[in-house]
Amino acid sequence: MAAVRKKGRERVVRPFDFRRPNKLSREHVRALSIVQEAFTRGVGTQLASVLRAVSQMRTVSIEQKTWDEYLAQTASPCYVAVLSLSPLPGATLLCLPLEAAYTIVELQMGGSGLVGQQHPERALSEIENGVLRGFIERLMPELRNSFVSLSNITPRILAVESSPQFAQVAGPNDPVVVVQYSLTIDAVSTSASLCIPYSSLQGVLDENTNAVSLTSVQYDAAATRRNILAQVQGVPVSVSARFAPCPMLATDVLNLKVGDVVRLGSSTNAPLTLYAEEQPTHLVKVGKSGRKIAVEVIESVLVAKNWNYSTDGGR
DSSP class of residue 153? Predict the structure, then answer.
């Protein structure tokens, strides 16, 4: 059985195995794409700053494969960093081909990136592994920050291997999520991959999908408005009644003494303006309520804002 789709005028046939259905939904891929976009951006920054070379990393694909399929497509020997993404269960593999591994080591040691194009066909030595591991350690904060949208993880390197076969992170037919990258470092263009068992990501991916689906629920606008108004009405607000401002010279303000009288520009009969949190709301008249000073509301500012009061109290 096969799934058929059209690509322009060309018909592309893709095999479909009913015994291994795809568990990676479109929502899952979208969530992982956000993570990988942040991760590749951070890795590119680290490559450029540490290696002092023109570098770029971008995501090519995010696919579900079986563990055997991933082993078949990964060259050996290579550089494999076995990672823990605690609290996510299981282990994750970050695989770099030899040309990328040797290029990073050579540039860190002050050499040329051209060595990556003529690298020896052998696994890295203990010293070379140590140098490259130091660089991979720098990528762990980038991986942690990129996963924030899915989960708060603490990535760390568990081990370093020369082939993914030596790091059995899943069963032969178990699904894994494989992220393929294109990697350019100086004069070397190559690839890299990240392999995460699907069982490790299933929980956080499902939670993310459920959270997104909840945000799409349509709420009753009228009921929501009533609830908001009910909450807003209980919020305390600072209120003050103020005279109209009058201009004064800075020297006059500095020379003020106790007992001086400052003449305001308003008449004794002119109303004051009531402010709520620095916003004018009403015109008020000064009075008393018992033994306390009070104000009586005359008019809303929206209605009375065009009133012009003269100094003799007229309008």
Answer: -
| Chain segment 81-96, per-residue pLDDT in tens | 999 999 999 899 999 9
Chain segment 207-240, per-residue pLDDT in tens: 877 665 444 445 567 777 888 888 877 788 888 8
**Contact at 8 Å (CB) between 60 and 153?**
no
Burial 79-91 (b: 16+ CB within 10 A, else e): bbbbbbbeebeeb
Neighbours of 16 (CB within 10 A): 12
Round to whole Å and give the CA distance between 276 and 236.
10
* Prediction pTM value: 0.59
**What would the mean pLDDT of 234-251 be, rounded to a whole number?**
84
SS3 category, 53: coil
Nearest Cα neighbor of 116 from 131, 134, 98 is 98
Q: b/e for 222-257, b at 16 or more Cβ within 10 A?
A: eeeeeeeeeeeeeeeeeeebeeeeeeeeeeeeeeee
Place of tokens 């540490």: 50
What stretches of the chain show up as alpha helix (H) in DSSP? Answer: 26-51, 67-73, 98-108, 126-146, 198-215, 221-232, 250-254, 301-304
Q: Which residue has the tokens 């996510």?
A: 88
CATH topology of domain 20-212: Chemotaxis protein chec (3.40.1550)
Euclidean distance between CA atoms 191 and 181, whole angstroms: 5
Residue ranges of domains in the chain:
20-212, 238-244+264-315
Q: Angle between the 198-215 and 26-51 helix axes, to the nearest 10 degrees? A: 110
Q: How far apart are the first and last CA of the chain?
A: 88
Tokens of 151: 């989960």
* Non-local CB neighbours of 30 within 8 Å, separated by 6+ positions: none
Q: Which two tokens stand for residue 131?
A: 């140098």
Burial class (CB in 10 A: 0-12, 13-18, 19+), 78: buried
